[in-house]
TrEMBL record:
Coiled coil: none annotated. The modification 4-aspartylphosphate is found at residue 54. It comes from Paenibacillus glycanilyticus. Pfam families: HTH_18, Response_reg. This is DNA-binding response regulator. InterPro entries: CheY-like_superfamily, Homeodomain-like_sf, HTH_AraC, HTH_AraC-typ_CS, Sig_transdc_resp-reg_receiver, Tscrpt_reg_AraC-type_HTH. Keywords: DNA-binding, Phosphoprotein, Transcription, Transcription regulation. Residues 237-335 form the HTH araC/xylS-type domain. The keyword Phosphoprotein applies.
């Protein structure tokens, strides 16, 4: 199943795109963003295989987003949906290796066909996502308290990346840079002024690279105190209380990170450590508990229940419910004689 992130500021268009993707075999939506910055924050935690984005959005636009993906050499395919039939936009999209360029109003069949054309490339990208997930997994482990095998796990991760040096040098460099950047983001002000390694033209031996990351690990272990751990625990407990009150809203990673006075990367790691799940999965869990209560009310229609708890598309709502409960909402009711 290929995972898709949708970035579109107009909710009714985003709802339509999500519905098309959710009802296309082999694809599922893992996140929705309202602008390019929010999409960029989300994709660095969700690692989708496909990004579908509008061009014109507030804060950061779709071209900025695909530029970041191209510059970081992330193994993701991109589809732009634009309301502007202008050559310069298409030219920029080609520069950033955009996979498909569709015009608004997007036609259902056009979007489905565009996704199907990408199938072979998406399958090829799957192996690179394993490396992205390894990086993410290590960063989540790093956020945990009392991890005695961190150095061993770091060295295992690095040696798996070293294996790509000769055959896939671009991905090799991109993965090392990604690990270093996300790690130093987590450390925040303590790493101010730190030079960025793995720039083009910089030749480091494997031993030098290991030494750089060992130094970073030492810094992390020195700064991770019991007091900061307890503070993080308190902040995430308050965040969860907020989510349980406002689960109907379309709450973003960026919004929650700002509320908790953390960077998006640090918030995601700390939230996962404290709750055992991502922000999106936690919101879905809270919503599903409420859905099960509402399904016991026979006068309520299922589409009204979906709307009441914050879902804008029935296909997405039905998939999440079945993944969580193992049955459809209708089957859930029937089993209880409703």
């Amino acid at each position: 199943m290929f995972q898709v992130l949708v970035a579109e500021d107009e909710i009714w268009i985003r709802k339509m795109i999500v519905d098309i993707i959710e009802t296309t075999e082999g694809f599922q939506v893992v996140g929705e963003a309202r602008n390019g910055q929010e999409a960029w924050d989300m994709l660095q935690e969700l690692w989708p295989t496909l990004v579908v984005t509008d061009i014109m959005m507030p804060q950061r636009d779709g071209l900025w987003l695909v530029e970041q993906i191209a510059e970081k050499k992330l193994p993701m395919e991109t589809i732009i949906i634009s309301g502007y039939d202008k050559f310069q936009y298409a030219q920029q999209a080609m520069k950033y290796k955009v996979s498909e360029y569709l015009l608004k109003p997007v036609k259902e069949q056009e979007l489905r066909e565009a996704m199907q054309r990408l199938y072979a490339r998406l399958e090829d990208n799957d192996k690179w996502h394993l490396y992205l997930l390894k990086v993410q997994s290590f960063l989540e482990e790093l956020a945990s308290k009392d991890q005695p095998d961190l150095r061993q796990h770091l060295h295992q991760l690095l040696h798996s990346v070293f294996a790509l040096r000769e055959t896939y040098p671009a991905y090799y460099t991109a993965l090392l840079r990604l690990l270093y950047t996300k790690w130093t983001e987590r450390l925040g002000k303590g790493m101010a002024g730190t030079s960025q390694p793995f720039q083009s033209g910089e030749e480091l031996t494997e031993e030098q690279i290991v030494a750089r990351f060992d130094e970073l690990l030492n810094h992390s272990l020195q700064t991770q105190s019991s007091d900061s751990y307890q503070l993080d625990k308190k902040v995430i407990r308050e965040a969860c209380a907020y989510l349980e009150q406002h689960y109907r809203k379309n709450i973003s990673l960026t919004e929650m990170a700002e509320r908790c006075h953390m960077s998006v990367s640090h918030f995601c790691n700390v939230f996962k450590r404290q709750t055992g799940m991502t922000l999106i999965n936690y919101i879905n869990k809270v919503r599903m508990e409420k859905v099960k209560e509402l399904l016991l009310e026979p006068d309520l229609k299922i589409y009204d229940i979906a709307d009441l708890v914050g879902y804008t598309t029935m296909s997405y709502f039905n998939r999440i419910f079945k993944e969580t409960e193992g049955v459809s909402p209708n089957e859930f009711r029937k089993a209880r004689g409703i």
